[in-house]
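Researcher: We're teaching a course module on how sequence relates to structure. For the next exercise, students receive a sequence and then see the predicted structure as tokens, so they can try to spot secondary structure elements on their own. Here is the exercise chain.
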Amino acid sequence: MTAADPIQSDILIHVDRLTFDGTMLFDDLNFALPAGKWTCLMGVSGVGKSTLLRLVAGLMPEETAITIKASASGLDGQIAYMAQDDLLLPWLTVFENVVLGARLRGDEFSPGRALHLLEQLDLLGSAYDLPATLSGSMRQRAALARTLMEDRPVVLMDEPFSALDTITRVRLQDLAAEMLRDRTVLLVTHDPLEAFRLADRIHVMSGRPAVLFEPIEPAGASPRDMRDPDLLAGQAELLERLTRSKAVA
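Model: And here is the predicted structure for the students to work with:
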């Protein structure tokens, strides 16, 4: 399997148990990421969405009991992860941050592809600037370019568009939906409209330990038209579920 090959089977995830600071976040939690689709996690702050994302990314302590079944080759080297913070290295230029993963691994990479991504994200003129000179929106877009540059079949994104103005946010939702088509994506967001525009399956997480409500599965292909009445009705339904959910059962 090469980095760009899509995952052919659903990814099944089981978290046995996770306690943090004396509070049980997860206990026998099971869910699936449909292959080649966008899955969205929503819920109130503190319920464990970002923690679950880090578990799938392999960024939690090894003693945490989590089982991931994806394919015969597993998910080693197949995941790109975009955190809430941009995590740009301040001493590297934007271009150097975008290609950082390949450079650290000693892999060959296409400078032209990196520059093309920056052009699509309106960052080409800042390719050789340092992160300190960028606005928050520009830093977020640079982090997105770095994630897309990894070209992985599984992409985990934690509030990737949160620092963007509304117009830029919608445009980058469209771009991400196109560039990550046929990839298996797990997206954490607090924006119901964003979830309904992009996701094939939406889970609301609630409780202590956390549980997942039955998923909402929006009709049609993403990114969905902002003017679609079904999109607005779905947003209202999702808001109702979120209102009923809570961090502590």
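Model: If you want an answer key for the exercise: Residues 93 and 129 are 5 Å apart (CA to CA). The chain has a mean pLDDT of 87.
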